[in-house]
Write a structure and sequence with these properties.
Order of helices and strands: HEEHEHHEEHHHHHEEEHEE
Number of helices: 10
Number of domains: 2
CATH class of the largest domain: Alpha Beta
Shape: elongated
Largest sheet: 5 strands, mixed
Number of strands: 10
Radius of gyration: 24 Å
Structural class: alpha/beta
CATH architecture of the largest domain: 2-Layer Sandwich
Distance between the termini: 71 Å
Mean pLDDT: 89
C-alpha cells in the first residue's frame, strides 16, 4: 500500500504541512498513555515504515532513531495513570495527543489522527480509521509513541523490581496478573482498570488479600496528600504485619488499613480489637528498636469504604486510634 497516498492528496489540495498523530498504551493495567505528533518531509523514503504493531521491537527502535533524525518536527506527550483514572482512558488519550501537538515547534496546517474520535487538537484535523497502516505520517507517530512508552515502562523496572515492566510493559499478561495477585497494585497502576484483575482474582483464593492491597493503595494516596512520607509498607514481624509506616515532621505513624464495602454492619475500626492492638504495638516496638527516630510514635487506623468496582472510595482517617 502507498503510505503517501493520503498526504499526496492533501498536498495537492494546498496543505503544506501535514502532521500524523497516534497513541500507544490505551489498554495496559499500568503506566501512562503516550502519543506522538510527527511532521515528515513529504515523500521521504523510510524503509520498513509501517504500523508499529506490525513491526518487531528491534525494527521499531531503529525506525525511532531514523524518524526523529529526519522529521521536520515531532512532539511526544503522555498522560499518567492518575490522569487515566481521573479522566477515563479516552480523555487521557486526547490529553496526551494535545500535549504531543503542543510540543511541536512547527504548527501543522492539518493533523491526521488515527481513529474515529476527534481529540480537538489546536489545528485542523482529519480522522483516519486504521490510519497507522494507511498514512506515513500516522505510521511514524505510532512508532514514536510505542517506543517512547516502552522505554518509559522499561525504566520503571529498577523502582518496581516485583513487576516485570521491562517485559510486559504493563499489559495484562498472565505474568503481570500473577505479579499483581502476589504484590497488589503499585502507584503506577491504573486502579480503574483493575476490574480485569478482580475477574482474575475470582479464579484464585487470593481475592481477600487483593482487596486489602487495593485498600492500602488508597490509604497511601490519602496519606501522601496529607504530607506524610512513606517509611515502610507491609512491615512483617513474628507478631504480625503493620500495613503502613509513615511519618511527618512530628510523628512516626503505624497505620492499620481496613477495607470494607460499606459500614452497614459495623465500622471498619471495630475490627481492630484489643488483641490486634496488642500485636500491632509489639510489632511497632520491634521496628522502633531497629530504627532510631526522635519522632513521637502514633497508631492510626484508616478505613476505606469501596464498592465492588472501587469507584470513589470513602477514606476515614482516625488518628491516635489506640
Amino acid at each position: 500500500m502507498d503510505l503517501w497516498e493520503i498526504e499526496r492528496g492533501l498536498i495537492s489540495s494546498g496543505y503544506n504541512s501535514v502532521c500524523g498523530i497516534d497513541e500507544a498504551g490505551r489498554g495496559p493495567l499500568a503506566g501512562p498513555v503516550f502519543a506522538a505528533a510527527v511532521i515528515l518531509p513529504f515523500g521521504i523514503n523510510i524503509p520498513f515504515l509501517d504500523d508499529s504493531k506490525k513491526l518487531s521491537e528491534k525494527i521499531r527502535e531503529n525506525l525511532y532513531d531514523e524518524i526523529t533524525a529526519k522529521a521536520i518536527d515531532y512532539g511526544i506527550g503522555s498522560a499518567d495513570n492518575h490522569e487515566v483514572d481521573g479522566l477515563n482512558i479516552l480523555k487521557a488519550t486526547f490529553l496526551s495527543m494535545n500535549r504531543a501537538v503542543d510540543a511541536l515547534k512547527t504548527k501543522p496546517d492539518l493533523a491526521l489522527v488515527d481513529g474515529n474520535r476527534d481529540p480537538f487538537v489546536k489545528c485542523r484535523s482529519k480522522l483516519i480509521v486504521g490510519g497507522d497502516g494507511k498514512s506515513a505520517s500516522i505510521a511514524a507517530a505510532s512508532i514514536l509513541a510505542k517506543v517512547s512508552r516502552d522505554r518509559f515502562m522499561s525504566g520503571l523496572q529498577e523502582k518496581y523490581p516485583q513487576y516485570s515492566f521491562s517485559k510486559h510493559k504493563g499489559y495484562g499478561t498472565k505474568q503481570h496478573f500473577a505479579e499483581l495477585l502476589e504484590n497488589g497494585p503499585s502507584d503506577v497502576h491504573r486502579i480503574s482498570f483493575l476490574s480485569k484483575l478482580k475477574e482474575k482474582s475470582r479464579e484464585t483464593s487470593t481475592n481477600t488479600r487483593l482487596r486489602g492491597k487495593l485498600g492500602e493503595v488508597y490509604a497511601l494516596e490519602h496519606l501522601k496528600e496529607q504530607n506524610y512520607s512513606v517509611v515502610a509498607e507491609s512491615y512483617s514481624t513474628r507478631f504480625g504485619e503493620i500495613d503502613l509506616i509513615v511519618k511527618n515532621s512530628e510523628y512516626i505513624v503505624f497505620v492499620e488499613v481496613k477495607l470494607r464495602k460499606n459500614d452497614k454492619f459495623a465500622a471498619a475500626r471495630e475490627f481492630v480489637g484489643k488483641e490486634k492492638q496488642r500485636k500491632l504495638t509489639a510489632a511497632a516496638k520491634l521496628w522502633l528498636q531497629s530504627n532510631n527516630t526522635d519522632l513521637q510514635p502514633r497508631f492510626d487506623v484508616i478505613e476505606v469504604y469501596a464498592p465492588d468496582d472501587f469507584a470513589s472510595p470513602e477514606i476515614i482517617h482516625i488518628e491516635n486510634a489506640f
